Amino acid sequence: MMPSLFIAHGAPSLALEENAYTEFLQKLGQELPKPKAIVLFSAHWESTTQLVSSVANYETIYDFGGFQPELYQIKYPAQGHEETTAEIKRLFANAGIPVESDSVRGLDHGAWVVLRLLYPNANIPVVALSVNRYLSNEQQYQVGQALATLREQDVLVIGSGGTVHNLRQLNWESAGVDPWAMAFDNWLQDKLVSWDTESLFAYDKLAPSAQAAVPTPEHFVPLLLAMGAGDQNKQASLLFKAYQYGNLSLSCWKFD
């Protein structure tokens, strides 16, 4: 059975960097069993109705500004997967989750930066899904849970976001880690490993420095979506954790 993954996508410039995290993601893509398709929730595709891509050939979206010119030259020409799109719609319907198709939108940097590191040849079909920040944390988990059986069909489910993601708190010159960011992630690690969903669903009230770590929820939501997809076995493993710019978390979680 395929795992589900939560992968922090960091800043867009991650696509040009060579560091321990990019090396880890490149190696992870080589070590995972080759998936039939990838289903990816990106923090940068938000909608109040659950959207699922039905695009045949994706354009690359540059949904950022002020970065290196080379970033705007990168292409990630992934193809869609009609069979998986249809199965996702069926699973959501069975779970009572309203869903609509999107046949236009390309892949934003929350998707292609991660995918390009994992599968640089763009040779795995992709189905992109939106996130809805206005659902409760329990509902986010249930959205992921509705897709759990995809893993039995050799489909890799990925949530792309960031556990500590506060652009106003970044220190672009810092080589260290802000204690408040580490405290939040350590609390989160404890609750994920113990699969304490009750606490996780109330992280914004219980976790230290939650408001600083998660000023808006769209980057945190993909973690709950990926975790929900791993509900069957309830096994969480932290594969990587590091930080950039003082507090921007670069973490990867696997749910078996």
Automatic annotation (TrEMBL):
Provide an example Pfam family for this protein. LigB
* All residue ranges annotated as the Extradiol ring-cleavage dioxygenase class III enzyme subunit B domain in the record: 21-246
> What's a single GO MF annotation on this record?
dioxygenase activity
Xref: InterPro entries: Extradiol_dOase_DODA (IPR014436), Xdiol_dOase_suB (IPR004183)
Which keywords does this Swiss-Prot/TrEMBL entry list?
A: Dioxygenase, Metal-binding, Oxidoreductase, Zinc
Gene3D superfamilies linked: LigB-like
Give the matching SUPFAM superfamilies.
LigB-like
Could you say which cofactors this protein requires? Zn(2+)
> What does the sequence similarity comment in the record state about its family?
Belongs to the DODA-type extradiol aromatic ring-opening dioxygenase family.
What is this protein identified as? Dioxygenase
Q: Which organism is it from?
A: Paenibacillus taichungensis
